[in-house]
Amino acid sequence: MSINHFISHLEQIIPYHGDGSYIAQRLVLYPIGAAGYAHATLLTMPPGTKVLSHWHDDREAVFYCLRGEGLFVLDDVEHAATAGSAMLQPLHAIHGFVAGATDFQFLDFALFTSDGMERNAADCFARVEDVAPQQRDYGTDLPLFTSFANTAIRFVGERLIDGTFTDADVDAGTEQIVLVLDGEGELELLGRRTPLRTGSIAYLIARVPFAIHGTVRVVTSSSLTGRIAEPPFFDRLRAA
Q1: Residue 239 burial by CB count (10 A; 0-12/13-18/19+): exposed, middle or buried?
Q2: H or E segment at 224?
Q3: Which residue among 130, 149, 166 closes a domain?
Q4: Which of 110, 130, 150 is the last residue of a domain?
Q5: Are 34 and 152 in contact (CB under 8 A)?
Q6: Which of 91, 141, 144, 160 has a CA that sits 20 to 30 A from residue 218's CA?
Q7: How far apart are CA 20 and CA 37, in angstroms?
Q8: Which of 131, 127, 50 has the alpha carbon at shortest distance from 95?
Q9: pLDDT digits (tens, 9 = 90+) for 77-121
Q10: Residues whose CB is less than 8 angstroms from the CB of residue 85 and which lie 6 or more positions away in sequence, other chains included
Q11: 131: phi > 0 → left, psi -120 to 50 → alpha, else beta; which?
């Protein structure tokens, strides 16, 4: 079985224009293509552009800046964002984005939910360097936020893998969406191995064994499945 179904690279993802103020690349096809409650899209805004304030009635979201500079806007709070900045958008919260003098690039982790959680807008911002590291056997976890309205969301943040990270290191029944930020490694999946490098993307199906070997920094989401039905093909993969 080829693992090419489940691993890609940003340079292979066809970008499309959003509302005219950003270019998007879906890490996993949206709104279908993954059974879990998290999806991820890379957004790039040219200098001086703006995404007008708006809201969603079906999701929270975590926005995580990878490069450039701009503003994250949440309700009546504007927050300067550079690489490593994050914003948690609650359900129904007004939010928008403004690019600065350079391209403003950030990940949009859509965390689907019909439930809201009372939050103070000023408390919905973080920087990865301020996150208390959680030491693991495989390296270090840096969760950007730890409380979500939908308890199916188990992790959104960076993982610093220095060794081997496997399906035994995540909650049972969760799927993972992974983007390699830097470093080099190898993904072992479905009896095959493939190199990982900056820009590599992996969709790791729940309950299918995997291993990431090497020294890599990734940004990733982990969520339980059940948002949409899984295809029968997944059962055959698990039985292989």
Answers
A1: exposed
A2: strand 210-224
A3: 130
A4: 130
A5: no
A6: 91
A7: 27
A8: 50
A9: 999 999 999 999 999 999 999 999 999 999 999 999 999 999 999
A10: 64, 65, 72, 79, 125, 126, 127
A11: beta
